[in-house]
Amino acid sequence: MKRNILSLLIALFATLQVAAQTYDNLWKQAEINAQKDQPKSEIAVMKKIIVKASAAKDYGQLLAAETRQMTLWNEISADSLTPNVKRMEAEVLKVNDPALKAVRYAVLGKVYCDMNEKKSQEFFKKALEQPELLARHTSAEYVPLTQKGVDGSSFNNDLLHLIGFEADSKEAYLQLYTYYNKVGNRGAACLLSACNDEMDVQQSYPFKVETLPVPTRIVKGETVEIRCELKREGRFSDARYTIRYFQPDGKGTLRMDDGMVLLPNDRYPLDREVFRLYYTSECEDQQTIDIYFEDNSEPAQLYQLTFDFNNETEDEDSVVTADSKELPVTIVGH
User: Fold this and answer.
1) How far apart are alpha carbons 242 and 267 in whole angstroms?
2) Cα-Cα end-to-end distance for the chain
């Protein structure tokens, strides 16, 4: 009985000792052991960090210690590394926290980089599956496994850029470039394009222009409002758009919401994504206007809207809401 109590007290004392030690002190001990070329002693320190970090849920410390422990096992005996890597592969499947799971996949990618390049990139690809999520987390959350990079401030020191740079592949840089360009972080996008001269940077994205419905009935001298929104599938910082129109039938004028009157077939810069157009009828015939939106890509992408108006007084064909406001009847987009 006394022996059991004594064993329990020794175990409790050892646990309290580990808890009392700071991470800095433990890593310093590990560094001393490394300088003395004592891998087994260093592994013992890693185990202490793993115990402490597991209890406190300090994932950065936990993963850093596990990564270092695998490196040490490999130095002692390559045969001991494989089962421990397999253990970590099994453990990552049990993780529910998506950010932590991404970091664990990145660690596996890093471990495999000298063992199996294909498998390394597979794990990094899994780590980068949710760029928006990783961009919301800072690399500071996973210190000392992660450290701020030289250009970290350009990426808001997020976890996304850190994992992407660790992957160090054309695909990873392109994925990061696409994300930062999409959210308007031009500085980060420029840095990424400089990282890999062979990176095939996407410089054009499909776009469309959506409008609210407009009335199809119009009388001479009447003006109808066309509310527009340019929607892009992706963002390239140097993308530019223009607008022009042609009137194959009837006669009228089209102007922008800033008062600028558009001349048929003349091209005008479109410097905003939400805007309004105003068409005024100048005849009593049926009228058609084709509005063209074009970007500056090579080759240029073109999007067309066509509006048909019947110059008649309101009749039973007009669609009116309960508050007597007309709804758009037909809009044809190509």
Assistant:
1) 6
2) 87
For the segment 233-275, what is each residue's pLDDT rounded down to a tens digit? 876 667 889 999 999 999 999 999 999 999 999 999 999 999 9
The token duo for 62 is 């936990």
Nearest to 287, CA basis, from 211, 212, 210, 214: 214
Report the predicted TM-score, pTM, of the whole model to 2 decimal places. 0.53
Q: Work out the burial of residue 151: count CB atoms within 10 Å of its CB; fewer than 13 is exposed, 13-18 middle, 19 or more buried.
A: middle
Instruction: Return d(Cα 226, Cα 213) in angstroms, integer.
Output: 8
CA dist., res. 41 & res. 47, Å (int): 10
- Distance, CA of 270 to CA of 292 (rounded, Å): 11
Q: What is the dihedral of CA 234, 101, 68, 17, to 10 degrees?
A: 130
Look up residue 144 and give its amino acid.
Answer: P
Whether a cis peptide bond, with omega within 30° of 0, leads into 213 is no
Is-contact 279 184, C-beta < 8 A? no
Please state the rounded mean pLDDT for residues 295-299. 84
d(CA 50, CA 52): 6
**Which amino acid would we find at residue 235?**
R
pLDDT tens per residue, range 176-207 = 888 888 888 888 887 887 666 555 555 667 89
Q: What is the CA radius of gyration of the chain?
A: 32
Q: Which amino acid is at 114?
A: D
How buried is residue 1: exposed, middle or buried, by Cβ count under 10 Å (0-12/13-18/19+)?
Answer: exposed
State the Cα–Cα distance between residues 132 and 180, nearest whole angstrom. 10
The two three-digit tokens of residue 140, written as one number: 């500071």
Q: Is 224 left (phi over 0), alpha (psi -120 to 50) or beta?
A: beta
